[in-house]
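PROTOCOL LOG
Step 1. Enter all chains and additional molecules of the complex.
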Amino acid sequence: MPTNAPHSLTALRDYLRLDTDFAVLADALPWRSDPHLAACLAAFPGLRLPKQPFGETLLCFLCSATKQIVQIKQMVALLAQNHGAVINCGAGSPNPAKAAFGNASLHALPTWTELAQIPEDELRRCLLGFRARYIKQTALFLAECPGWLEETEALPYPDAKARLMKLPGVGEKVADCVLLFGAAKLEAFPVDTWILKALARRYDLTDWSPAQLTRFGRVHFGEAAGFAQQYLFAYERASALGAI
DNA sequence: CTCCAGGTCTGGT
DNA sequence: ACCAGACATGGA
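Step 2. Run joint prediction.
Step 3. Record the structure below.
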């Protein structure tokens, strides 16, 4: 562990925003008393938690409900391709993405303002299914409330979470993902199917209810629970794929 | 064909 | 407060 690892939660957040080596955050986790977490940390020594744009994170996780990760990627790619502004990478512009994608035009994700203009049935063409309605309604709400997203991101975790959960399609899990990945709120502990499996299987809690497992995770992993969540998630998926 | 996927909402007890 | 179905769609 580097000796300059930050020790307060505020310092950890600042550290996160620099997109440096986040492995030092492990120091804030109870891995010394937790053999499984220790194994996860050892299995993914380079794991990072980059802070991503708040609004884009919200869009991506509004797509995520009961979908496989490969499919979520495809939905997001279609949203960009069909409705996002073209990113200029003409001749002379040293855009590394152009080398990677050849002459295919690159698109940004559509902004919430742009999404508010798109008919729901057109959004549905991006394989969104029933999620199209959530995205459309959220876009219409955000269009009526300029600054709402920025204000939400600036709030403390519990207030930000409560506000996000007022959006259609945003429940506890999606709100936690948006705050963990899009706002670097390390207290956020998103509980998805993988985390439920990990808590039940790796902590010998097979007869616990999902609500009890959730509470266990939030209490056990503490102030940097979201960082622990990433390790549990990565480990459980790799394990399912036979990579571990 | 059936089951599940980085869930949420709604309408029942 | 807790529980079952519905919700779209594709991959395993």
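Step 4. Note key features.
The longest strand of chain A covers residues 86-87.
The domain at 20-49+189-240 of chain A is CATH 1.10.1670.10 (Endonuclease Iii, domain 2).
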